[in-house]
UniProtKB/TrEMBL annotation:
Protein's GO biological process: axoneme assembly; spermatid development
Renumbered residue ranges of the record's region Disordered: 1-34
Keyword Repeat: yes
Domain of life: Eukaryota
Pfam short name (any one): MORN
UniProt keyword Repeat, yes or no: yes
Identification of the protein by name: Radial spoke head 1 homolog
Compositional bias segments (type: Acidic residues): 1-14
InterPro entries in the cross-refs: MORN
Organism: Clonorchis sinensis
Bias (Basic and acidic residues): 21-32
Phylogenetic placement of the source organism: Eukaryota, Metazoa, Spiralia, Lophotrochozoa, Platyhelminthes
Amino acid sequence: MSDDEAEDIEEEEGVYLGEYEGGRNERDERHGYGKAILPNGDAYDGMYENGKRHGPGIYRFKNGARYDGVYYDGKKHGKGTFYYPDGSVYEGLWVENQRNGVGKYTYVNGDVYEGEWRDHLRHGQGSYTFAASKLRYEGTWKEGKMDGFGELIHESHKYIGFWKDGMKFGFSSSLRKNVLLRGICLEEKTIRASALNIWRWFAACDIMEFYAPQCYKRY
């Protein structure tokens, strides 16, 4: 599962919907600690309040996914960990069933994002590490894409500049050992997770300058 899909919504529960064992209130609603097996095969083990999941609990989806965290008024809300069926994992904050706030997402391919989220998307400040190439982006995100100021880092070289809609944009600098490259990038193709591509990207930039080794220390 990719991090911008929303296939992690739990089945709704009614007073007598599915199998239930646990506490009830004076209105015969599920209340306090209880266990439930829902008609669709999902299972919940945790706290209820007035018929809704409320407080800490574990929800197991029939497809193998699992949420272990806090609920509020029937929705994932607060701190929780979601284990997706493809093996990816999100650990962090939720607001009304969506990733909102600070969290860490480990993808099935080993990539890792740590930072801010808004409405299920990477949004705000965060870092993304590409497992295959060891590239790491640190900077600003907007609606799931790199957007704003950021740094793309890989061992002995670093790209520093601005991004727009997932692509390099505007003034930028690149450090590689004792050489500093600076330029203005007008347009480029979508970013790819390859260290070699860092240098290919500069073919799309104008006003490129080379600096002496001693200049490297000042940047």
